[in-house]
Amino acid sequence: MKKNSVKNIRINSEVQREMSRIIREDLKDPRIHPLTSVMAVEVTPDLKYAKIYVSVLGDEEAKKKTMKGLKKSASYARHQLAGRMNLRNTPELTFILDTSIEYGVEMAKKIDEVNKAGKGEEEHE
């Protein structure tokens, strides 16, 4: 099966939806921040491994605690995923912090600053 086959894309989106529910409803670890979102999932074609990209709305300390909590809860989350999905293999879960949202916000702020500086120069001319 090719990496981006229709079947693999469908499995990725289904695992993403179920992992979002599991993190929100089933994981009771107090380290996991309540505003944790599953941004993307990449399941290998053989269904052995899955990378779960999560975004945490909070400071650096909240992100570190959430990642520790998710890594400790990975086997329980995998067990929950196995019960909810009918897959030949239940993938081993690896949680990865996704910082793309913060990067985008930071770039938007820099673009706004450049635009404001450019408009200020035009007014002085």
Brief synopsis:
The protein is of the alpha+beta class and 125 residues long.
What does it look like?
This protein is an alpha+beta fold and 125 residues long. Helices cover 56% and strands 18% of the residues. It is built from four helices and three strands, in the order H-E-E-H-H-E-H. A three-stranded mixed β-sheet has the order 1-2-3. Helix 1 (6-26) crosses helix 3 (74-84). It is elongated and about 65 Å long. The N and C termini lie far apart (62 Å).
Task: Tally the beta strands.
Answer: 3
CA(first)-CA(last) distance: 62 Å
Structural class: alpha+beta
Strand order of the largest sheet: 1-2-3
**Portion of residues within helices:** 55-70%
How many helices in DSSP terms? 4
Please write the string of helix (H) and strand (E) elements: HEEHHEH
Sequence stretches where pLDDT stays below 50 over 5 or more residues:
none
* Largest sheet properties: 3 strands, mixed
Would you tell me the overall average pLDDT?
Answer: 90
Query: Overall 3D geometry?
Result: elongated
Q: How much is the radius of gyration in Å?
A: 19 Å
Strand content: 15-25%
